[in-house]
Amino acid sequence: MQIPLQIIFRGIPPSEAVEANIREKAAKLEQFNSHIMSCRVAVEADHQHSHQGNLYHVRIDITTPQKELVVSREHHDKHAHEDVYVAVRDAFRAARRQLEDYSRIIRGEVKTHDLQGNGVVARLIPEEDHGFIEANEDGHELYFHRNSVRGKGFDALEVGSKVRYVEEEADPGPQASSVYP
């Protein structure tokens, strides 16, 4: 980490043992992503439970060059979190899963083709720099702009051209944010 680990205790006195446990778990996070710039951990006790023990909340903020990941473990009904070590363990497990998922995305191991639809160019209106795609799944039409077309570009498209696209909701209706001939 470029910035030293920060540990904050709220509503409970600082504990060297808990801090050592957090430092050990934070060091292991770098195995899942070596580009962690900073990590801040806040441990807080919820004093609202007078008839039972305190529940501990753990929040972990991890900063990487491209993204900030936040894990907040607040389990008001989970009696296991009456033990601060269990709350810390669960929060770091969630942080590890988020880092693993994020690292897979960065490495390009997560396929995006499931997010893409297939269709054909239904209409082109070159003078207005847009067109419409008819989706193969259900036949609905969606708008696309000249700037959304990848590869050889808008001018290479013809009515009937097969395309893949990434659909997003827009006003007044669905549109293709990326079109791949």
From TrEMBL:
This is HPF/RaiA family ribosome-associated protein. GO terms for molecular function: nucleic acid binding. Residues 116-181 form the CSD domain. It comes from the Bacteria. It holds the Pfam family Ribosomal_S30AE.
